[in-house]
Design a protein that fits this description.
about 80 residues; 2 helices; 2 strands
Length: about 80
């Protein structure tokens, strides 16, 4: 088996760091979405800014969580080794 080149190793490290970061950002966006959909009826006043409540939609939540679900599912498949 050939030794990988430094550029291949660098690409692997970048991919290894990118996927967990994307999953964390996706989870943070989903949590923010849930909090914004459960604001009081009159909104939340933050100085001159007033945050109005959003309509909760399960499809939007699942779209925001899809990178987290894919990452955790792929990690569990990677940990399960198939016998050769």
């Amino acid at each position: 088996m050939a030794t990988p080149s430094p550029s291949e190793v660098q690409a692997w490290v970048a991919a290894k760091n990118c996927r967990p970061k994307t999953a964390r950002q996706s989870f943070a966006a989903a949590v923010t979405y849930v909090f914004l959909t459960h604001l009081p009826e009159g909104g939340l006043a933050l100085g001159p800014l007033v945050l109005e409540p959003w309509q909760f939609n399960v499809e939007v939540l699942l779209a925001l969580l899809s990178p987290v679900l894919a990452y955790s599912g792929l990690r569990s498949l990677d940990k399960r080794k198939t016998p050769t």
